[in-house]
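> example.struct
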């Protein structure tokens, strides 16, 4: 399915947008992270589907899981993209009370900017979940590539191993 999807994207995207304008190694890396994310979610949903007796329940759980992964990765990604100081457009859009500081002019700290501890936790959550890796790949901003690949491999291996152990003696038909 992933290969078919990629083939359709290439068949439609290349004539409309032209050739990929990034180095091949970088393109291959982002493509691999996207495939790993897809496989990780597929393995997880397969284990959920095989664990339930009702297809409707399995479909509902998988749909909620996919929506939660997308929502969580989008929210974490936006939180990590927060700047430490508000821009002029932010100041026009919202009213802020507090002191102005900074040597280069008027700098107001962003109240939504995560503390260093929160930032580390958000980065870890963003890298751990397959939706976060897929978002990073789509944004072409994989900052911790080895950690992302390691977590994707764990998302593939652990549910596969758990499914093998649980369903080893069952007739899955």
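> example.seq
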């Amino acid at each position: 399915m992933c290969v078919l999807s990629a083939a359709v994207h290439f068949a439609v995207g290349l004539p409309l947008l032209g050739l990929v304008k990034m180095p091949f190694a970088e393109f291959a890396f982002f493509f691999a992270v996207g495939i790993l994310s897809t496989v990780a979610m597929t393995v997880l949903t397969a284990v959920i589907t095989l664990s339930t007796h009702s297809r409707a329940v399995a479909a509902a759980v998988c749909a909620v899981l996919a929506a939660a992964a997308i929502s969580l990765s989008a929210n974490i990604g936006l939180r990590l993209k927060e700047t430490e100081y508000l821009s002029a457009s932010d100041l026009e859009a919202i009213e802020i009370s507090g002191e102005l500081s900074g040597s280069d002019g008027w700098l107001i700290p962003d109240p939504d900017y995560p503390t260093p501890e929160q930032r580390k936790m958000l980065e870890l959550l963003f890298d751990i979940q397959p939706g976060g890796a897929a978002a990073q790949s789509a944004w072409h901003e994989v900052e911790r590539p080895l950690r992302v690949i390691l977590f994707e491999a764990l998302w593939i291996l652990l549910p596969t191993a758990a499914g093998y152990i649980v369903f080893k003696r069952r007739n899955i038909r």
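> remarks
The first helix runs from residue 2 to 17.
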